[in-house]
Design goal:
Number of helices: 2
Helix content: 55-70%
Order of helices and strands: HH
Oligomer: single chain
Shape: extended
Distance between the termini: 19 Å
Length: about 55
């Protein structure tokens, strides 16, 4: 899985309270919301690829 150049945008709708809480937690962990969402997507893709090989 490539972690190369970021050249695309993903627009999502999320509850405002959840967004604020997520950003606050990210800041407390010295990370960004974007970084954590990208990490989630990469991990999800790897897990799904493993599941599809079964």
């Amino acid at each position: 899985m490539s972690t190369g150049k970021k050249d695309s945008t993903l627009l999502i709708k999320i509850n405002g309270d959840e967004k604020r809480a997520f950003i606050e937690l990210c800041e407390q962990s010295d990370t960004s919301a974007s970084r954590e969402i990208r990490r989630f997507i990469r991990e999800y893709l790897v897990a799904e690829a493993k599941n599809s090989k079964k």
